[in-house]
Design goal:
- There is one protein chain.
- The chain is an alpha/beta fold and 225 residues long.
- It has 2 domains: 97 residues, Glutaredoxin (3-Layer(aba) Sandwich); 116 residues, Glutathione S-transferase Yfyf (Class Pi), Chain A, domain 2, CATH 1.20.1050.
- The protein contains 10 helices and 6 strands.
- The strands form 2 sheets. It has a 4-stranded mixed β-sheet.
- It binds glutathione.
- The site of glutathione (GSH) has 10 residues, from loops.
């Protein structure tokens, strides 16, 4: 019997694609990974999702899910393994608050910490040089990390003792914050709850699996269907 797998358009280092791959992996859902280049996006991907961002998941029935949050929720709802707590955003107020904090506060600050050179005008309005501007936004990220740490102190994961969609949604972004300056992060951020949580994911065999390198997907005419 030929099994038709969902097709997943991905970019290895993209934290949004990462969270979606991780959710699918924790849910035990297999997929055909197609690694793309942003300079030459596959036509089939653009046909199904003209906005041109990864991740894009195309289900065997033709349904397209092209927002990482929706893929994570879909994975949770269709999980084949019981260690993924299938929560949805609507069911949980703390989760909703965390998600808003991540997207409206942490990510914009992370972006400015990571790419201060892209915000020269903003920095000059604040009378800060590039370094000070980056550090200002790094400090804003730390405020969020402290909140996460407080949640993680008495429990293993953000929603309790089981991995939830919120862990999977947050982890790749916190990891990205770390890799902006790994040495500084490892020396300066000593929050035990947060570190334990990060280590759990970083050392998890499924994380290693979803971070495996794949050759660039070469599109053939037949894939345009
Ligand atoms: N809101 C989207 C954001 C995805 C996103 O921004 N992906 C970036 C890569 S990290 C992308 O595909 N960019 C396309 C480009 O740079 O051309 C989601 O969560 O799925």
């Amino acid at each position: 019997m030929i099994q038709i797998l969902p097709v997943f358009y991905s970019y290895r280092r993209c934290p949004y694609a990462m969270r979606a791959r991780l959710a699918l992996a924790f849910a035990g859902i297999d997929f055909e990974l197609r690694e793309i280049s942003f300079k030459n996006k596959p036509e089939n991907m653009l046909k199904h999702s003209p906005k041109g961002t990864v991740p894009v998941l195309i289900l065997p029935n033709g349904d397209v899910i092209d927002e990482s949050l929706d893929i994570v929720i879909w994975a949770a709802k269709n999980a084949l393994k019981e260690n993924f707590a299938p929560l949805t955003m609507k069911q949980d107020d703390l989760g909703k608050k965390l998600y808003t904090e991540l997207h409206e506060n942490f990510i914009p600050n992370l972006h400015r910490y990571k790419y201060p050179d892209r915000f020269a005008e903003e920095a000059s309005k604040m009378s800060l040089d590039q370094k000070a501007y980056g550090e200002y936004h790094r400090a804003a990220c730390i405020v969020v990390l402290k909140k996460i740490t407080a949640i993680l102190l008495p429990q293993k994961f953000l929603m309790g003792d089981k991995i939830s969609i919120y862990d999977v949604l947050f982890f790749p972004l916190v990891r990205q914050f770390r890799v902006v300056n790994t040495g500084w992060f490892d020396d300066s951020i000593k929050y035990p709850g947060l570190k334990k949580w990060m280590t759990f994911f970083m050392r998890h065999p499924l994380f290693a699996k979803v971070m495996e390198k794949h050759p660039l997907w070469i599109e053939k005419t037949a894939d345009h269907n």
